[in-house]
Amino acid sequence: MGLVWFTTDGRVLYLLPWEGATIAGTTDAPGEVTFEPKPTDQEINFILSECNRVLRDKVSRETVRAAWTGLRPLVRDPNAAPGDTKALSRDHVIDVTAGVSLSQVSHACGTRNLGHGMVV
User: Which of 39, 49, 54, 95 could form a disulfide with 69 if both were Cys (CB 3.0 to 4.6 A apart)?
Assistant: First the structure.
């Protein structure tokens, strides 16, 4: 069983047990799009700091065995505030303008719901 809580900036941070260790992570930090994304020192320090807010046994850079990051496409809702990654759609967006339907899906799981929304 894992642990999930809100960070000081309103994102979600999680701790998950994995093969005798623990994975700590969060999502939705804006970053540079590259073919080989790497976590920044700022991102690693943020996660450690947030973990230390709730953990009795504190963690540090010395306790980190590995760090990784990735990119996932998120769909910008045309009605959302610009620059707020928390407002990006995790599902899908259907925009109907002048009888033309435009759709975008942020992940494969949303494809079925998108199809239903286009028909209904």
Answer: 39
